[in-house]
Design goal:
- This protein has 762 residues and is an alpha+beta fold.
- It has a 5-stranded mixed sheet with strand order 23-25-24-26-27, sandwiched between helices. A 4-stranded antiparallel sheet has the order 1-2-8-5. A 4-stranded antiparallel sheet has the order 6-7-3-10, with no helix packed on it.
- The radius of gyration is 31 Å and the shape is globular.
- The two termini are 52 Å apart.
Length: 762
């Protein structure tokens, strides 16, 4: 595809995404006007009807009815076939527009009132989904005659089920809902004051018959540099088995919540408190998350100890599970699920923009430490060996060591900045990208295979470099000059993409949520951390003098270092096979053979006056590039060939995850990729071992695996939900329906076993 065509495609995606992202929720109908359920008794059971407003639709699989009272024995709810389509959140679904007529077959043992618990969920065409709804309908029924058919024998012919007139005229008052829900402001009162300079006092007041969720409340303080919020000090609440979110803590009465104010300056300040919370009507509707803002004058206070501020910032930086897989996302979250999400959750964005507090200091420190740890990751070690070789070849001269280290650091930092800027720019256009996105492109993987193989040939002595294309290879293969050091830094960053280190994930999450200058600062600090060991060698003369003297041993070391390069090329070929199949591997191998032949031929004629032979050698090098041109045209392997695990796990899908959670199963979600070195290390050390499988059986848990080797919007949406900018990501969902627990990037067997047992006990 031409560059112009690609740009046009990006613009089209942007134009499609902007209208949905800009939906004004105030223009939506109240849920009880969008979907109006009624019910009445019939000779076959109870007929239910939903009147659906224009521009709105209901999900079939989110519709359920239970009946109690009058000895009513109900069969399975019978609904007509709906309109089939693929939903961004649930996958293949059926929906209804205009109206939905259903039948709950059954008979009553005696005349009386039947109480129906009706649950349903729907969306607007504007791209916003309502939370799951719950209504109670009362229906008067008569006792069944002695010859009445049992519920199990009731049925509706397929032709009749599709008829809109199945149940006769609309019900007129036979079914009534509970009390009409109050407006949000009446159902949930909210106030806030500054108790003193180091504490705010929040007051939530649910109306009678309403309750507030504790753990679905998030708050931020904006407009006052140097001030942030600590952990809310919630009083004990009431344990409640919620139909939407499982076992939760709620408040049915007024509750006052002290919130510490963390300060790095004592002066008085004016600030805006923004609180987002959610609550429900008892046995009625659940409101979407609502946000209130209060302007506060905060008096002077005392500075908060640095350790306390950093600890609070670390907890705030932890991934936020905004929604629960047992429930359907709120209106805002559902809109994000239906449109490629290029912006982070509001809670994270608000924290990331507070550049004056300790949160950003922690993010920058995490970037520095994460970059430093990259030096010991297996994906980077082969290239770092080249850098060590170049330093050893250069001798002990402090001036050379300083210039070499600075050049290498410049290559590393510039590459991190370029990768970060490209990722941020593409995310701003609606592309679902994260750390390591470049290795999701088969062309990039194949190009890296060529580079690693060529570097290995150079180290093995197949060709000596010094000009033209070979000069570029020499620059990548430990040339003593500054350009060689610079390009070694570039290559180190490119091959670092498969690795995510501790501290690095949190730093990148902030970078993808922050304003551009601060985001680029995080990527720059990653580069500084990665280059730090060689910077120390170059800038500290004592360390440079400890380098070994050049000698004949260098030739042997060069040849030994060629083999890690070959192994890296083999691993990348395996990744390429995962992305484009065995044909792609064969095509790349053929290209490598031609590349080796061309480099060998070029070396043979290097000092000969043979223009024709030199031209033929260069032609072979050009010919070796042909497979790179053909690779993007190859189709990806079939889904069955790439996603059917052989270890008893299940491929990830949102619909299947929701189904397992509805069954009360513990679920271990494992998001990885073929090119992710950290993922493979965790699999070898923990996830592919019998101890892990035994822990799954003990917790009655299911392992679900998501493969992010190629671009996959479904998996990207899951990563975004937990503020993960790449893989691996491990989340353990309890059987009770509570929030999932996010595990660290680097796993241990004890850590995973403990998490599974906690989930099983909840």
């Amino acid at each position: 595809m031409s560059l112009i065509a690609r740009l046009a495609s990006v613009l089209v995606l942007l134009c499609l995404a902007l209208p949905a992202a800009a939906v004004d929720e105030s223009s939506l109908l109240p849920v009880d006007q969008a979907f109006v359920p009624t019910a009445e008794a019939t000779g076959q059971g109870i007929a239910l009807r939903w009147k659906i407003a224009d521009g709105y639709y209901l999900y079939r699989h989110r519709t359920a009815v239970t009946a109690e009272g009058a000895g009513f024995k109900a069969g399975e709810l019978q609904m007509p076939d709906g309109e089939k389509h693929t939903d961004p959140y649930f996958g293949p679904v059926e929906t209804y527009r205009g109206r939905l007529d259903a039948l709950l077959p059954g008979t009553a043992a005696a005349a009386g009132q039947v109480t129906l618990k009706v649950r349903y969920q729907g969306c607007a065409d504007a791209g916003v989904c309502y939370p799951p709804q719950s209504r109670t309908l009362q229906v008067a029924v008569a006792a069944a005659p002695a010859s009445a058919t049992s519920p199990g024998g009731l049925g509706v012919a397929p032709a009749a089920r599709s008829s809109l007139a199945l149940f006769g005229p609309p019900a007129t008052g036979a079914g009534t809902t509970d009390a009409v829900p109050l407006a949000q402001e009446q159902a949930f009162g909210f106030e806030a004051i500054a108790g003193h300079g180091n504490q705010l006092l929040l007051r939530f007041t649910p109306a009678r018959g309403y309750y507030l969720y504790r753990d679905r409340t998030h708050m931020t303080l904006t407009g006052a540099d140097g001030l942030s919020l600590g952990n809310p000090q919630w009083p004990p609440g009431q344990s409640h088995r919620d139909a939407h979110f499982g076992e939760v803590t709620v408040y049915f009465d007024q509750v006052e919540v002290p919130v510490p104010v963390l300060r790095d300056r004592p002066e008085a300040a004016r600030a805006t408190l923004q609180v987002t919370f959610q609550g429900c009507q008892t046995d009625g509707i659940c409101y979407p998350p609502m946000t209130r803002e209060v302007a506060l004058s905060i008096p002077a206070g005392t500075r908060t100890p640095a350790a306390e501020r950093v600890a609070a910032a670390a907890q705030a930086a932890a991934p936020i599970a905004l929604e629960n897989d047992r429930a359907v996302p709120s209106a805002a979250a559902s809109a994000a699920a239906q449109v490629p999400r290029s912006t982070p959750p509001p809670e994270l964005l608000a924290r990331a923009q507070r550049s004056g507090g300790g949160t950003w200091l922690l993010a920058l420190l995490g970037a520095l430490l994460g970059g430093l740890i990259l030096n010991v990751m297996p994906c980077v070690l082969p290239v770092l060996s080249l850098k060590a070789l170049s330093l050893a070849e250069g001798g002990r001269g402090s001036q050379h060591a300083r210039a070499s280290a600075l050049s290498y650091a410049a290559g590393v930092m510039l590459s991190f900045l370029v990768v970060g800027a490209v990722a941020l720019g593409l995310r701003a256009t609606g592309q679902a990208l994260g750390w390591g996105f470049q290795l999701q492109q088969p062309l990039m993987v194949a190009a890296l295979v060529y580079v690693m193989f060529a570097v290995g040939l150079s180290l093995s002595g197949v060709f000596a470099v010094g000009y033209g294309l070979a000069g570029a290879g020499r620059g990548l293969a430990a040339r003593g000059g500054l350009s060689g050091d610079f390009f070694t830094g570039v290559l180190a960053v490119v091959v670092a993409a498969p690795c995510t280190t501790p501290f690095m994930g949190t730093a990148l999450a902030f970078a993808f949520a922050a304003p551009l200058p601060l985001a680029l600062a995080v990527f720059a600090l990653l580069g500084v951390g990665m280059a730090l060991p060689f910077l120390l060698i170059g800038l500290v003369p004592g360390l440079a003098r400890r380098l070994p003297r050049p000698g004949a041993w260098m030739d042997t070391l060069k040849q030994v270092l060629a083999f890690p390069m070959y192994l890296t090329a083999v691993w990348l070929l395996w990744v390429l096979g995962k992305q484009r199949g065995i044909d792609a591997v064969a095509l790349a191998l053929a290209g490598l053979v031609v590349l080796a032949l061309g480099l060998w031929a070029l070396q043979r004629v290097r000092f000969q006056a043979a223009p024709l032979r030199r031209t033929l050698a260069l032609a072979l090098l050009v010919l070796s590039i042909v497979p790179l041109v053909l690779l993007p045209r190859l189709p990806a392997p079939s889904v069955a060939a790439t996603t059917a695990p052989a270890d008893g796990s299940e491929p990830y899908s949102p619909a299947r995850l929701a189904q397992l959670r509805k069954q009360g199963r513990v679920v271990f979600v494992d998001m990885g990729a073929a090119w992710c070195v950290s993922c493979k290390a965790n699999e070898n050390a923990v996830l592919d071992r019998e101890a892990f499988r035994a822990a799954l059986r003990s917790a009655n848990a299911v392992r679900m695996r998501g493969d992010w080797t190629n671009v996959d919007p479904t998996i990207t949406a899951f990563l975004t939900r937990y503020n993960a900018v790449g893989v691996p990501l491990y989340v353990v969902f309890p059987g009770s329906g509570g929030e999932g627990e996010v595990l660290p990037t680097i796993l241990t067997q004890q850590m995973v076993s403990d998490a599974l047992q906690r989930a099983a006990r909840q």
